[in-house]
Design a protein that fits this description.
The structure holds 3 protein chains of 3 kinds. By secondary structure, chain A is α/β, with parallel strands linked by helices. Chain A folds into 2 domains: about 120 residues, Alpha-Beta Complex (Aspartate Aminotransferase, domain 1), CATH 3.90.1150.10; about 260 residues, Aspartate Aminotransferase, domain 2, CATH 3.40.640.10. Chain A contains 13 helices and 15 strands. In chain B, β11 and β12 form a beta hairpin. In chain B, α5 packs parallel to α6. Chain B has 3 domains: about 45 residues, no CATH class; about 260 residues, Type I PLP-dependent aspartate aminotransferase-like (Major domain) (Aspartate Aminotransferase, domain 2, 3-Layer(aba) Sandwich), CATH 3.40.640; about 110 residues, Aspartate Aminotransferase, domain 1. Chain B is built from 15 helices and 14 strands. The relative contact order of chain B is 0.13. Chain B is about 35% helix and about 10% strand. By secondary structure, chain C is of the alpha+beta class. Chain C has one domain: Beta Barrel (OB fold (Dihydrolipoamide Acetyltransferase, E2P)). In chain C, about 20% of the residues lie in helices and about 35% in strands. Chain C starts with 7 loop residues before the first strand and ends with a helix. The chains are: A alpha/beta, B alpha/beta, C alpha+beta. Chains in contact: A-B, A-C, B-C. Chains A and B meet through α1, α2, α3, α4 and α5 of A and α1, α2, α3, α4 and α5 of B.
Chain lengths: ~450, ~475, ~130
């Protein structure tokens, strides 16, 4: 389809090689030929393939619905400039920048990403990116394990449930004990009184804002970490919050990690997104994956290059800090172009708009009879609302009215069946909120009438 | 030299993106807020110039030939990009109810099925984010499987000495002891040596086929049988799958588990180092351990399925690198099985053609025809002139050709690993061979000229030692206001 | 490449200079030049017990990593923290300022047994390039 060979060329190439035919040259050893008809759809001409895939995309009704879903994946405005510059062929179709002379564009962009992540988190050093927020959490825990060697992790139950599930997947295979901390009535984690939490551990993991939207007492987590002789690992699933909240470093974290999808990446049904991880200087050699440093070339010209590769799998093999190789370079570039485009002023304004819209939404929902805000705790752009009918039922009624109502917490917390996690961003309009609140009011009374 | 973003801009610059909602202090207690946000403010044209200039300092497939072994830098069709930009995909939230995501789910389901057929497995998970992520996923599956059947004491992972570095690194993450298997003079795994190392402690044997020397492991069925007899599992690293699609199948060779790199074999662009996509396939025995959710079809409706009690669980927050899978699906659907097989055949043709064109100036240590890539050695040239494989590679950069993979696998000294891929024209290959031969001639006449290369790239050879020593102290890895880069 | 005659050598390219009951350990000129620019040195802590032929530390260059194997058994009495700060010293002066650790030998009389003298090591290195 995209191969250029003419029959004449193939013949002359085979002559040079000294092989009788294309089939003879590429055939597997006898006995390994494919003997069955493979169940793969027949080839389509490009125009038909385009239409076929477009038709599938058009079937995704949920992509066009008015959405109040967040929960680790956020719908934000993506300035057209971001995609325009970041997806130039020269970036999109380049390889990992091992050859510094041929990759200064990618390398400088990664250096700029590392700087942005340091400025946002207050940390000294950042790596070149990780797959996503959940795997960043795993890598952060492994860093703490390398520092402390206890194979014991303390984590808040208000950390994103999918992140915790991913951590559990790895922990089971790696022999790491995971101790979970309960969440209080106010939606924040109990970092002070807990049973298993006073023994030594590699780290204490806190997410802020947490999965319920509540801004956590990160210093309390840092204190607990100190008592357990472990590191404090801070998780941010909504990177936009870093624009306004105190930095993880100021709050006492040793490692700051999370998900930066909010910086210019589309929802994309879950990926690719971009994980970040940053830490204080003393842990720099424990950072996983690629790192770019500034140097000079033989002429004394400023240059950028991959560095500390001795930590990585292609050199240290089984003793590497992590097995990661390919990461999310293009996604990190998109985030970098996003941050450059909106700047400090734009990012603060967007964050404020999120704060404002979320409070409008809270006011509208709290005004519905039987509804209340679940937690009296400050939040950024999402929060839990208590509903008089099962949140899952309400959400499914509202879906039929064209709304993605938010995430019913029963999906991850069976005891919290009356809580709905809702999110508003700068893209949420006053009209959206009014229509949603009206529909929620009606559907609630229908649901109550049906009982 | 372009300055960094942080050295550009001025406070107050930049467009307005949202209506003014006032300062954050209107909504949150001052005690929760950061004092300042020291990011640069730039006009959009400054951003445009900055990144357009940076892009001009990069090699890329759309501009340069990449004979980069084991990386499969083939052309990335633009249909892929159009497909991944459809709003029905980009604006879809991963927690949206299945009923509203039928198109995306159908595409994932079709891709699971196509890969299952093409590679001879029972089921595929599209969740892993990249090749190494697929490897650790498979190691976690193997470990859970052995625990479930009461053989959790198996803790040795056998890996050929030609393997990718990610293989031993992934095995070590789950606590497996890595035992390297030597290669024979024919460039294949030493089956006798392997058999001596098999035993009650064997967990997994990880192999690439064709291997990283570009040679088909012709004893593969003997290997998989022996490992199975010892109670171990066979793992296929799909880095080199571009040589075999539609020609033969890892499942038929006896592999229990495998990962693919959709960003190599299935034309998802590399993006300067990701995002990739590393689906994992499993045979009947291992399929229940695949990460969840998988996509299932029931009466024409598609759904995320969390039903396997034995699954290792999720390996990332959401279901897949979906937009990467869309690109790979576009590639599958315009090719069909016949087109995919044709691509593999032409990849093998191109590699053998380049091999034939350079083997008299750079020794090719193995006599057999290669598959999609081959290795050659600059050892003789180094002995004669002092010019190394690295210098030849830097010389290629001056000719606008990306360097081949170098110094790996370690079994070949001064190794250059060359993988042209199927999308390159005969003329490009002829030009590459002529350039490489010219550099070898130049090395013999003027070795210092080679060692000075590259001369025409945006920067020349860089000082890696100083930056490495500083970086160990956390210095030079970011820009800072006080010291520029610190 | 000349090897100082006041010490003994391993085939892993470490050297051991015995002074009574204690000794100094480093890597050879051949080792540093094979590795290239060294960017990082990881040494055992003072007080650590070294076992002969077992890894006692790591030297890392821009593109390679190598274990350092203890040439003799003993207790680490002092480490050269200046090479941790400035690993370039190991490249510049591997037999002098670039020394790595001092040890109190477990068995001073047997420490040199089985190791190579300067001439034997020079012959060994010469054999490697063939």
């Amino acid at each position: 389809m995209y191969t250029p060979h003419t029959p004449d060329e193939i013949r002359s190439m085979l002559d040079v090689i000294g092989a009788p035919s294309l089939a003879a040259l590429s055939a597997p050893p006898p006995g390994l030929e494919i003997k069955v008809r493979l169940d793969v759809p027949p080839a389509l001409p490009e125009a038909d393939a385009y239409a076929h895939i477009k038709a599938m995309a058009d079937e995704d009704r949920a992509a066009r619905m008015v959405s109040f879903l967040g929960a680790g994946a956020y719908r934000h405005y993506r300035p057209p400039a971001v995609g325009w510059f970041a997806t130039r062929s020269e970036f999109l179709t380049s390889y990992t920048p091992y050859q510094a002379e041929a990759s200064q564009g990618s390398l400088q962009a990664i250096f700029e990403w590392q700087t942005y992540i340091c400025l946002l988190t207050g940390m000294d050093v950042s790596n070149a990116s990780l797959y996503d927020g959940a795997t960043a959490l795993v890598e952060g825990v492994i860093m703490a394990l390398h520092a402390k060697g206890r194979r014991r992790v303390i984590i808040s139950r208000a950390v994103h449930p999918m992140y915790r599930a991913v951590l559990q997947t790895y922990a089971s295979g790696m022999g790491i004990e995971v101790v979970e901390l309960a969440v209080g009535e106010d939606g924040r984690t109990h970092f002070t009184s807990s049973d298993g939490a006073s023994q030594p551990a590699d780290c204490v993991v806190v997410q802020s804002p947490n999965f319920f939207g509540c801004i956590e007492d990160v210093p309390a987590a840092a204190k607990l970490a100190a008592r357990c002789d472990g590191l404090c690992v801070s998780v941010t699933a909504e990177a936009l919050a870093l624009a306004v909240l105190k930095t993880p470093r100021e709050l006492g974290a040793d490692i700051a990690l999370g998900e930066a999808q909010s910086f210019g990446l589309p929802l994309g049904y879950g990926g690719p997104y971009v994980g970040f991880i940053a830490c204080t200087k003393e842990h720099v050699r424990r950072l996983p994956g690629r790192l770019v440093g500034e140097t000079t070339d033989v002429d004394g010209k400023r240059a950028f290059v991959l560095t500390l590769q001795g930590r990585e799998q292609h050199i240290r093999r089984e003793l590497a800090t992590s097995n990661i190789c390919t990461n999310q370079a293009l996604c990190a570039l998109i985030a970098t172009v996003y941050l450059a485009t909106v700047g400090s002023r734009g990012l603060k304004a967007i964050a404020s708009a999120n704060l404002a819209r979320a409070r409008e939404l809270a006011g509208a929902l709290a005004g519905i009879p039987g509804f209340s805000l679940a937690h009296p705790t400050p939040y950024f752009n999402e929060f839990c609302v208590r509903t008089p009918v099962a949140a899952a039922e309400l959400a499914s009624r509202l879906e039929r009215r064209g709304f993605l109502a938010g995430l019913p917490l029963s999906r991850f917390y069976p005891a919290l069946g009356d809580l709905l996690l809702v999110c508003a961003t700068e893209l949420t309009t006053g009209q959206d909120i009014a229509a949603f609140a009206a529909a929620a009011r009606e559907e609630t009374s229908h649901a109550l009438a049906a009982i | 030299m372009p300055s960094l973003l942080f050295e550009r801009g001025a406070p107050g610059r930049g467009a307005t993106f949202v209506s003014d909602a006032g300062a954050a202090a209107r909504y949150l207690d001052a005690g929760l807020l950061r004092a300042d946000l020291p990011l640069p403010d730039l006009a959009e044209l400054e951003v445009a110039r900055h990144f357009t200039e940076l892009s001009s300092r990069n090699f890329s497939v759309d501009r340069n030939f990449y004979p980069l072994g084991s990386c499969t830098m083939k052309y990335n069709p633009k249909l892929n990009e159009a497909a991944a930009a459809f709003e029905g995909f980009t604006e879809l939230h991963p927690f949206a109810p299945d009923a509203g995501c039928q198109g995306a789910l159908q595409l994932l389901w079709r891709m699971q099925r196509a890969l299952t057929a093409l590679f001879g497995m029972t089921q595929f998970s599209l969740m892993p984010a990249a090749g190494a992520h697929g490897e650790i996923t498979a190691m976690l599956m193997a470990k859970k499987h052995f625990n479930d059947i009461g053989e959790g004491a198996r803790n040795v992972c056998l890996v050929p000495d030609t393997a990718h570095g990610t293989n031993p690194a992934s095995a070590a993450m789950v606590g497996y002891r890595v035992n390297a298997i030597a290669s024979t003079a024919r460039g294949r795994i030493d089956v006798a040596a392997l058999k001596r190392k098999l035993g009650a402690d064997t967990a997994v044997c990880m192999m690439t086929n064709p291997n990283t020397l570009g040679l088909f492991e012709d004893d593969i069925v003997d290997v998989t049988n022996a490992v199975h007899e010892a109670g171990g599992l066979m793992y296929y690293d799909g880095a080199n799958a571009n040589a075999i699609v539609g020609l033969c199948r890892p499942g038929d060779m006896g592999f229990d588990l495998l990962h693919l790199n959709l960003h190599k074999t299935f034309s998802v662009p590399h993006g300067g180092g990701g995002p990739g996509s590393g689906p994992v396939g499993a045979n009947k025995k291992l399929a229940p351990y695949l990460p969840q959710p998988l996509v299932i079809e029931r009466d024409g409706a598609f759904a995320l399925d969390w039903g396997s009690q034995r699954s290792i669980g999720p390996v990332r927050a959401f279901w897949s690198h979906f937009l990467a899978v869309v690109r790979a699906y576009a590639y599958v659907i315009v090719h069909g099985v016949d087109g995919l097989r044709r691509n593999s055949e032409l990849a093998v043709l191109n590699a053998n053609y380049v091999r034939a064109a350079v083997k008299d100036v750079l020794a090719v240590p193995y006599e057999d025809f290669c598959r999609h890539e081959f290795v050659c050695s600059a050892e003789a040239l180094k002995k004669k002139t002092g010019v190394r494989a690295l210098d030849l590679a830097k010389g290629l950069l001056d000719a606008g050709i990306h360097a081949p993979t170098m110094y790996w696998p370690h079994v070949v000294p001064e190794c250059l690993m060359i993988e042209p891929t199927e999308t390159e024209t005969k003329a490009t290959l002829d030009g590459f061979a002529a350039t490489l031969r010219g550099l070898v001639e130049l090395a013999e006449a003027e070795p210092d000229a080679l060692r000075a290369m590259p001369l025409h790239t945006s920067v020349r050879r860089v000082d890696e030692a100083h930056v490495g020593r500083q970086a160990n102290k956390g210095i030079g890895l970011r820009w800072s206001a006080e010291q520029g880069a610190v | 490449m000349s090897q100082p005659g006041d010490r003994v050598y391993t085939k892993e390219h470490e050297w051991l200079r015995i002074e009574g009951s204690s000794a100094t350990i480093g890597i050879t000129d051949y080792a540093q030049s094979s590795l290239g620019d060294i960017v990082y040195v990881e040494l055992p802590k003072p007080g650590a017990q070294l076992e002969r032929s077992k890894p006692m530390g790591v030297v890392e260059s821009v593109k390679a990593v190598s274990d350092i194997y203890a040439p003799a058994a003993g207790t680490v009495s002092e480490i050269n923290s200046s090479v941790e700060d400035d690993p370039a010293k190991v490249n510049a002066d591997p037999f002098g300022d670039g020394w790595l650790v001092k040890v109190t030998l477990q068995d001073p009389n047997a420490a040199a047994q089985g190791l190579l003298d300067a001439q034997a090591y020079a012959d060994f290195v010469a054999s490697l390039s063939h």
